[in-house]
Structure formats: structure tokens, C-alpha cells
Amino acid sequence: MSNLTKYAKYLVEKGYLEHDMVESANQKMLEFGENSAGALARLLESDFAVPHDKVFEALAKHYAFPQHDVDAELLEHKQLEACKDILNKIPEDLKKKLFFHKIFPYMIINTDREVLQVLASDPTDKVIQEIPEQTQYKRIEIYWSHLKTIESLIAKIAPQKNEFLALLEEAGQVLTDIDDGSSGMELNEAALDDEINKSLLVNLFEGALIEAVHKDASDIHIIPGGRSTIDIYIRVDGKLQLWHRQEGTAPEALSAVVKDRSIGVDRFERDTAQDGFAQRLIDDHLIRFRISIIPIVSSEYDRRFESIVIRVIDDRKVITDFRKLGFQTQAEQEFIKSISTSKGIIIVTGPTGSGKSTTLMAALHHVINPTVNVLTCEDPVEYVIRGARQLKIGHKMSFDLAIRSILRHDPDIVMVGEIRDKITADIAVKLANTGHLTFSTLHTNDAPSAVTRLYKMGIETFLLAYSINIIIAQRLVRKLCQKCRRPLAKEHWPAALAIGLTEEELQSGTIFEPVGCNKCHEGYKGRVNIAEALFFYPEVRNEIVKSVNDIDEERIRAIAEKKGMLSMRRSGVERMREGLTDLTEVLYATAED
Ligand SMILES: [Zn+2]
User: Fold this and answer.
1) How far is the CA of 375 from the centre of ligand 1 (A)?
2) How many angstroms does the Cα of residue 516 sit away from the middle of ligand 1?
3) What are residue 260's DSSP bridge partners?
4) What is the predicted pLDDT for the residue at 180?
5) Ligand 1 centre and the CA of 522: distance in Å?
6) CB–CB of 131/90 below 8 Å?
7) Last residue of some domain: 271, 301, 316?
8) Distance from the alpha carbon of residue 353 to the mean position of ligand 1, in angstroms
9) How many other C-beta atoms can be found within 10 angstroms of the C-beta atom of residue 352?
10) How far apart are CA 196 and CA 202, in angstroms?
């Protein structure tokens, strides 16, 4: 450890990180000609995929910076006003710079001497020193805060305006109907060109992108509502909600704007499905958008309408800390056990939108380190994963070709986006049996049926039994807003009793239902998983090997439940007991149980 800087030693001695990782990061830093703790911390974050808070918490402790965290949502009015007052006294340019560096000038902690408490996610950031240089606050005290604290303070106290929407409002309802109705003829391209020049639609499109990010939406849907109406929906917490209705505008005009401002789509093509891409800097973060355009039929026979769905890809939402996924105790322990070994298949199953990729991402981040070769093969690639080599699927390299080339690329850990057929299944099994850890997903309702699915793809029972470590089936249910939830009304008690809650639990008022307030949407805010974790205990493996003509899913389930596996519905009932979700959500998510 002789060459290690003091901070590097501290990271190892205090058990924050493994020695090998710190040593290679330290080496790399010295090669770059740097020698500061801050440089090492930044390198660990950028090149070694260590979560930001982990390295900087250690850095703060190493230099004895005090810590301060707050929940911006819980601040009182007086406090909010005081914060705004401080921000008003800071030059606009500096303020922008501070926010970009995740620094927040928070409050006066010593009124006599006017000492300003500054919260920073990197307390050694030199930008902090510009506060005493450029403002009236000559005395500052620096505190370390989690990234989330700073980001929530900025969002709450100094939210960045959606300029496009402001412009849109200023413009008012400009009539932009370009269908002159003269001959019922199709819109010509010249008319579309005129329309694109009208900044209104550009503002609408750009405004929608920003608003979707601000509202934490996963998708934006742009749907023709008629000859001159467009409906824009956003999906928040899994549900579509109408965000904006644009009247007096031909849907083709907005389609043209979207295509014009995206990469990889042909504006003049309106008869086939197209996939495009866009990226924007929003709130100082690079946000990517995947754009899917498909032609749709409509009653307007003389027009060519398209439906547009835009997926928001916000890297900040990637959960890199496995424990933050919040699996229930036994499922979490078994999951960790399954990925902490050097071989075997980890399968996450569930319908689209059940949070499979979030879980896989977190699991992958748990095992990535510079000493292993991590290869991923997905189509399309959703998130860029630091520390992994992600195969690029395209015209020349198909998914099948990519999958086959993985075997020859000396992998340690592989993520295959989805086991979709015998080829993928065979390769996953082959990888697992040759000492590789393999992550993948399936589309089945529950964990035991994933075994059947693989069996039907043609995988031998003994291979199935011995190559899989765990199958996690999961769903996302909406979380009750903690501010407005109330105890479940008596009329719903019979249904609650029927799914396993007790009379006493209902009497005690700790089982809730949604209400709705200004802090939430219809009584819900955020989502939480419910999961069925089928860990491959020897008993489970034996049962699968014994199968003759078919897989007995019920037997597998019975064996696993005896070992403590929660069924999806029981997992949901536990979430109700924790006060996190309600009867409607659990019944909806587990309807097939
Ligand atoms: Zn509420």
C-alpha cells in the first residue's frame, strides 16, 4: 500500500472498497498526473462505477467535513423563503455553476457573524470558494450531503423553468390548422415545411421532453386525436395521463417536427415503423430519448396519421445499489447469494414495465469491477453501463450473431437482454455451465412458469436444474402517498380478509387506501416492487430433474414456499402490511394468482 495516497488508504482501511480496486484507481490517477483525494474520488466514480455518495461520503469523513441532509419536501414555508432569500443574493452565473456542481448555499447558521452553511456533494470542490469571493457571504461552513439532498433542494427551491412551455403559453392558442379543406387532399410537404417553421410546435415538442423529465415520466405518447387535434400523454408510475391537448393543429405537422428534431428517422416516410433517437441537456443532465413512430389507421381516410411514443432514458434513475431495490428480506438474501458466485443463470421475469431492467442493472452493478470482463447483449441498449462492454446490434450484427460472438470474447459475466428462443437459451446454459455468471430476462407471469418456458424451448431438465441460480418474478405496484393515505374503509374489509389480512390488522388501522392530495397523483406516488424469488435449493433442482413429460409448476411452488418463498400475492400483502401499497394495486398486479 506504499504508493497509495492517504485517502486511498482510508478507503481500504475503513472497508469502503476493496484494496485491488483502490490500487488500480490510484495507479491510473498517478498516470494522469493527479494526486488529490478529489481526483481519486472522481475517477472511482467515473471509471470504476462506484456510487457517487459512497466515495464522497468517505472523502468527507476523511477530511472531517460534517454531514447534513434534509428532505426538501418537508421544509417549512419559512425555511423555503429563507433559502430563496439567500439565492437571490448570489449572482445568476455563479448560481448556475453551483447547481451544476451540486452545491447548495443553504442557510445562515450563525446570524451574528452571518456564517453561510453550504451543502456540497463533493466538499472539496474548488467552486465552493467562489461563494465568499463573489457574494456578501464572506464566512462559509461546508457540509457534505447526499446527491439526493442537493438535487431535491434545487428542484424544490430553484426549479429550472421549462422555457419552451413558457413560450408556448405566451404564444397562446395560435391557430395552426393547415388543412385548408379545399380538396381533402393530403398535406403537401411544402405546407409541412411552413408548419415546422412555426416555433409553436417546436416548443411543444421540446417542452414535452423537459416536462416528462421533470414529472419523472417513463414515456411520452403523441397521438392524433382527429383532423386537427393532438393528445399528448405521459406515463407516470406506470399509468398514462393526459398532459396536453393541442387543438387546431394537424397531427402530421407535429409528427414532422418530431422527426425533424430526431436522429435516424426519415421525415418523408409515413408508411412504415421507424425508430429514432434524441438527446437533450436537461437540468444539466444529458437525457436520451428513444423514439418509436408507427403509422396508424384513422377514420380520416385521406390522411396519414402516425402514433409516436418516446421513451425517456434518464441515467440518474439507474439504481446502482442493489439494496435500494428494496426486495423483501429473504428474496434479497437469496438474490445476493445467487449473484455472489462465479457461475449460473439469474433470471428476472415479468411483463413489460415490471421493472425487470432496473433490477438487472442494479444486480449487474453489484458484480462489475475492473477485474472481470462484463459483456452485455441487448436490443436495443437502454442504459450505458460503465465498466461493461455493450455489444452494438445493428444492420451488420444481428442479435443472434452477437450472442454467438459472446462465447469467443472471453467473458466472465454476461447479460443477455432476453432469452427469446432456443438459441439464446442454449447459449445462456452453455455460459453458465462453463463457469460464467449470466443475467437475463423472460416474459412469464411467475417464477415456476419460467422453468416451464425454458423446458418448452427445448432445454433438458438436468441442464435447467443445474444451470439456474434463481428466478425472480416481479411487478411494480404504486406506492401510497404517505401524506394523504387513510385506513381502509370497512366495506373493503371482506376483500382484504380474503387475501390473507387479519381482522386485527384491519381494526388497528394500519392497512391503508389512497385518497389524493396536491403532493401525489390519485393518492399514489412512486412505486415499489413485489416479487416471487425462486431460489434453486437442492430440493427444487431434484424436483426439476425428476420431471418426465412436463414441469410440475405446483410441486415446485410448494417446495419453494416451504422454504420460505413468498408468492407474488403474499409479497403484495406484506407490502400492504408495511403500509406501502393498497388492496387495489395488489389485486391488479396479481390478478392471475
Ligand atoms: Zn397524497
Assistant:
1) 42
2) 4
3) none
4) 42
5) 7
6) yes
7) 316
8) 23
9) 6
10) 7
pLDDT band at 171 (very low <50, low <70, confident <90, very high): low
For residue 286, report the distance from its CA to the centre of ligand 1, in Å. Answer: 30
Indicate if 40 and 87 belong to the same structural domain.
no
What is residue 178's predicted lDDT score, i.e. its pLDDT? 42
141 and 178, same domain (yes or no): no
| Ligand 1 centroid, distance to 156 Cα (angstroms) | 17
- Ligand 1 centroid, distance to 165 Cα (angstroms): 26
* Rounded distance from Cα 502 to ligand 1 centre (Å): 26
Side-chain half-sphere of 245: how many Cα atoms within 13 Å?
Answer: 7
Write out the three cell numbers for 570: 403474499
Above 90 in pLDDT, residue 221?
yes
Q: How far is the CA of 155 from the centre of ligand 1 (A)?
A: 19
Give the pLDDT confidence score for residue 179 in this predicted structure. 44
Question: Number of folded domains in the chain?
Answer: 4
The residue that leads in pLDDT, 30 or 528, is 528
Are the beta carbons of 259 and 265 closer than 8 angstroms? Answer: yes
Quote the ligand 1 centre to 73 CA distance (angstroms): 13
Q: Domain range holding 98? A: 72-157
Q: From the CA of 33, how far away is ligand 1's center (Å)?
A: 52
- pLDDT tens column, 41-69: 988 888 787 888 999 999 999 999 999 99
Tell me if 466 sits within 8 A of 541, measured CB to CB: yes
Q: How far is the CA of 515 from the centre of ligand 1 (A)?
A: 7
User: Cα of 514 to ligand 1 centre, how many Å?
Assistant: 8
How close is the Cα of 481 to the center of ligand 1, in Å?
4
Whether 508 is in a domain gets the answer: no
Say if residues 564 and 463 touch (Cβ distance below 8 Å). no
What's the gap in Å between 236 CA and the centre of ligand 1?
15
Q: CA of 67: how far to CAs of 44, 59, 107, 121, 155, in Å?
A: 21, 11, 14, 10, 20
99 and 83 housed in the same domain: yes
In terms of domains, do 450 and 558 share one?
Answer: yes
* Domain membership flag for residue 483: no
pLDDT score at 380: 83
Same domain assignment for residues 344 and 444: yes
Euclidean distance between CA atoms 381 and 384, whole angstroms: 7
- Res. 480 pLDDT band, cuts 50 70 90: very high
What is the mean predicted confidence (pLDDT) over 227-242?
91
pLDDT of residue 319: 84
Alpha helices (runs of H) in 522-567, residue ranges in sequence order: 538-546, 553-562
- What distance in angstroms lies between residue 332's CA and the mean position of ligand 1's atoms? 29
Cα of 568 vs centre of ligand 1, distance in Å, is: 26
Q: How far apart are CA 37 and CA 47, in angstroms?
A: 15
Q: Which of 316, 346, 368 is the last residue of a domain?
A: 316
Ligand 1 centroid, distance to 486 Cα (angstroms): 10
Q: Ligand 1 center to residue 484 CA distance, Å?
A: 4
Residues 123 and 197 in one domain: no
Give the pLDDT confidence score for residue 196 in this predicted structure: 52
CA–centroid distance, residue 574 to ligand 1 (Å): 21
Using the predicted structure, report yes or no on whether residue 416 has a pLDDT greater than 90.
Answer: yes
Query: How far does residue 580's CA lie from ligand 1's centre (Å)?
Result: 13
Q: Is residue 110 part of a domain?
A: yes
Q: What is the pLDDT of residues 519-569, one digit of tens each?
A: 888 999 999 999 999 999 999 999 999 988 889 999 999 999 999 999 999
Model's pTM, two decimal places?
A: 0.70
Ligand 1 centroid, distance to 519 Cα (angstroms): 5
- Mean pLDDT over residues 137-147, rounded? 94
Residue 432's pLDDT is what? 93
Tell me: do 124 and 232 sit in the same domain.
no
Give start and end residues of each alpha helix (H) in 408-479.
Answer: 422-433, 447-456, 461-467
Averaged confidence pLDDT in the chain:
89
Q: What is the mean pLDDT of residues 119-145?
A: 94
